[in-house]
Automatic annotation (TrEMBL):
SUPFAM superfamilies: P-loop containing nucleoside triphosphate hydrolases. Belongs to the ABC transporter superfamily. Ycf16 family. Keywords: ATP-binding, Nucleotide-binding. This is Fe-S cluster assembly ATPase SufC. The gene is sufC. Residues 2-247 form the ABC transporter domain. GO terms for molecular function: ATP binding; ATP hydrolysis activity. It comes from Sphingorhabdus lacus.
């Protein structure tokens, strides 16, 4: 599904990714762990097409298409979803309005008819209910006044409604208490653990992986993948840190 080959990228002319190679197949969940400044968030931003992140070498294909040649909205329409470490607030725009427009834009790209208001609300209620979120919160401006945990739940609702093929989740566990962590983990499994989907889960800590069992764990250090293993590698990192395992 996703093939990253020898990817180099800079931010403000500073090299961050330095030859990263990674392959994700449909049906797989991959976790990326690593020290601060290793390039984990940069990888997510490069894949999603965030401005200011310049690819200087390498290639990325998504379902056989040149991902780097697409505009950000085209990547989203092709089925890529980015969950932010710090979800942004959008005053004046309700969650319901935002999500309906996003979903219908993608349906239009796929040649599908847009959902009516009542059809969309049915989908939204199902996804919000599955994550323990009151529908009244979806009527509020996007993330405005939400706690950290509520913002992350809201992103899971967004992911469930949009139903992407590939989810890149950047430190989704950040700011979550134990109960919220379980809810978010269950949401990732429910929405994305399917044979035609894949997840790239960026995290500092092993705790989310207690709920979302990865097929592979990768260590990202100094801009490239330095080690790959199974779920047991995350436990090793949690116990021993990155110093001995990064190189």
């Amino acid at each position: 599904m996703l093939q990253i080959t020898n990817l180099h990228a800079t931010v403000a002319d500073k090299p961050i990714l330095k030859g990263l190679t990674l392959s994700l197949n449909a049906g797989e969940i991959h976790a990326i762990m690593g020290p601060n400044g290793a390039g984990k968030s940069t990888l997510g931003y490069v894949l999603s097409g965030r401005p200011g992140y310049e690819v200087t070498e390498g290639s990325v294909t998504f379902n056989g298409e040149d991902l780097l040649g697409m505009e950000p909205h085209e990547r989203a329409a092709a089925g890529l979803f980015l969950g932010f470490q710090y979800p942004v607030e959008i005053p004046g725009v309700s969650n319901v309005q935002f999500l309906r427009e996003a979903l219908n834009a993608q349906r239009k790209h796929r040649g599908e008819a847009p959902l009516t208001g009542s059809e969309f609300l049915k989908v939204a209620r199902e996804q919000a209910g599955a994550l323990g979120m009151d529908m009244d919160m979806l009527k509020r401006p996007v993330n405005v006044g939400f706690s950290g945990g509520e913002k992350k739940r809201n992103e899971m609702v967004q992911m469930g409604i949009i139903d992407p093929a590939l989810a890149i989740l950047d430190e989704t566990d950040s700011g979550l208490d134990i109960d919220a962590l379980r809810v978010v983990g269950d949401g990732i499994n429910r929405i994305m653990r399917k044979p035609d989907k894949a997840v790239l889960l960026i995290t500092h800590y092993q705790r989310l992986l207690d709920y979302v069992k990865p097929d592979f764990v990768h260590v990202l250090a100094d801009g490239r993948i330095t080690r790959t293993g199974g779920a047991e590698l995350a436990l090793e990192l949690e116990r021993d840190g990155y110093k001995e395992l990064a190189a």
